[in-house]
Amino acid sequence: MLDPTELLSRKLLLVTGKGGIGKTLLTACLGQCAAAAGKRVLLVEYVACDQLAPLFGATLIGHSERSVAPNIDCLNLDPTENFREYMTKYLGQRVLYDTIFSHKVVQSFIKTVPGLAELMLLGRLYYHCELAPEPRYDLVILDGFASGHFLSLMTTPAAVLHTALGGPLIRETERVSAFLADRDKCGIVYVTIPEALVISETIDFLPRLAAQSPTAIAGVVLNRTPPPLSTLSLPGPAADYLARIAESAAAATAMLTEGLAAMTPHDSSPMPIWTLPEVGFIPEPLPADFAAKIFTAQGQDKAERAKQ
Amino acid sequence: MNTGAPNFADSNGQKKTDSTEALIKNTRILVLLGAGGVGKTTTSIVTALMGANQGRRVALLSIDPAKRLAAALGIPLSNQLQPIAIPESMHISGSIDAAMLDQKAVFDAMVRRHAPSMSTAESILAHPVYQAASTNLAGPLEYMALAKLQELAEDPRYDLVVLDTPPDTQALDFLARPNVLAGFMENKVMTWLIRPFLLAGRFGLTKLFSLSEKLMGGIAKVTGVNALQSFGEFLLLMQEVISGFHSSGEHIVKLLHSPDTSFLLVTAPTEAATRSATGILTELKNIGYSLNAILFNKCLPSAVRTNALASDDQNMAIDPAIAMLKRRAEGEERVTAKLLQACSSSGLNPLILQLADEDQPIGSLTAMWHLAERLGQQ
């Protein structure tokens, strides 16, 4: 089960994992939980087509924060717009921007300088967490890139700092880096599913992420966990199917637990694994209590077992 | 020119899209499209196997595949085509040469090949920002894949080329305008913008002049010029590579429009994947390419679907998991119908294929051959 209380006490959560396994859904669900707990939350994505907004029944959010549900705002960052805001708002270089960076040719430069868009994205998240005028969001959640790209996002600030430069960009990057490294404020949530190939990629990837990312991994979410087997269901293809997926998921889950234990230093406890149930089909928009239901689904199982 | 590939025009009247076998038989270039996580790379390998089974000599270009997938095929991530060892037990008469393009490997190789000196190459490769960023310079890689595609299409050693595209192809811009590397080559912008950095490195900032002085001074003010100097070198090198490619853009457009080029859209029966797929097919239609087939991947197996849909309330009260399967079956039917509707309202009539989630390979060529057999029946 996922008791999100501890997780949601942070200011910034970064959600990542392989493509197509539920990053966007988890981002939306964490948002619902935080909002239900009375927090004001901002969900951020960075994609060509909005994927978060439709989960809340909204279309085309674009590059400005927009409310999609009570206490929940969504934002789909555009790299060029983000650069403009970064320059004018955060670095206080409006004149510089207006005279130089608004130039068309410079716009294409922004998209092509390696690492620049990544740096601006992190800067923007930091701004919303720590710098924006009050009242700020209580929690910002990034529906992050898929694993490999996410790793390079997280290594960008250190890379920039290693260039031994000065100037506002570096001072800003130093602040962002320090913020990202604060375990109480920031955490990565890694999403995976109980399928052998995906789990083996997870076990390969997590140690690299842990070693290279300034932000700590808060935990692993095992999404799409099949329901426990029922002895009562009628025999037939559906029951057989449920038995097969339960079996292969159990094997994959064991592999994950073992893998995480192996990467844990002797003096500390392994990274938490939170399981979320297979819901069958993800409806759009999500019902308002969707997250509450899936977050407690298996918690109830556990509670009942504990009672016996 | 006898390429060995069946010519579309004399394919004894068989419609190109009657079956997967026929589609592949009448295709010389197969382009796979789809959002991340739908199984596009796996499908590219499966279709390559089907081609090889027809006796074809297949070249498979895959962009950024999972390392484990490359390992399963027994080939390293590299931009060089390498033969895949197909087990004899499969009785496949053709062959597959595959290149698994790894972004970083591709860029590293390009820097080495085009740098004016070894020391320049090494300084770019060692640059921390280059190292952090070289895994996600997605744009240029797509164009390189197209350049490679052209090379392979003209290579008499191959008669079927399968191109797997990167996951984030929502814009499909690189297919629409392969002669313009988006935002990169516009009016030689990069040369104009970057050269001053190189000069600045050599002569100092004071030697810069006119607008570019103001511009560069501005950029230097926030970034420091030195950081950008090696990017400058890198981008100039990129430009050299790309400008060679620039001239052949029109040729590639022609290639992509040719009747023996086919587009296969891979999707999954979820709301999110359907939204991406709808975007892709609309865009494809706008650019003027045809969509020849859609593969609905990771579906509930059909017997399970039928069984779940037939479950009554009592059934589901006994086992809530059956209710979950029923919801999934209903949802899958709804979004599948939605995408098919989008096809017909765009005037597209693609071949419809389906694979169940249980058919997903566990990372071996044998498992993929099983998938190929499944597709071959459709």
Structure, described:
- The complex is a heterodimer of chains A (308) and B (378).
- Chain A is of the alpha/beta class.
- Chain A has a single domain, classed as P-loop containing nucleotide triphosphate hydrolases (Rossmann fold, 3-Layer(aba) Sandwich), CATH 3.40.50.300.
- Chain A is 50% helix and 16% strand.
- Chain A is built from eleven helices and eight strands.
- Chain A has helices at 4-7, 23-36, 79-90, 94-101, 104-112, 116-131, 147-161, 167-180, 196-212, 237-262, 290-307; strands at residues 12-17, 41-45, 66-69, 72-76, 139-146, 186-192, 217-225, 273-277.
- In chain A, strands 3-4-2-5-1-6-7-8 form an eight-stranded mixed β-sheet, sandwiched between helices.
- The two termini of chain A are 18 Å apart.
- The model of chain A is unreliable at 299-308 (pLDDT under 50).
- With 378 residues, chain B is an alpha/beta fold.
- Among the domains of chain B are: 20-115 and 138-174 and 255-298 and 350-376, P-loop containing nucleotide triphosphate hydrolases (Rossmann fold); 186-245, no CATH class.
- In chain B, strands 3-4-2-5-1-6-7-8 form an eight-stranded mixed β-sheet, sandwiched between helices.
- The longest helix of chain B has 26 residues, at 320-345.
- Chain B starts with 19 loop residues before the first helix and ends with a helix.
- Chains A and B meet through helix 4, helix 5, helix 7, helix 8 and helix 9 of A and helix 6, helix 9, helix 10, helix 11 and helix 13 of B.
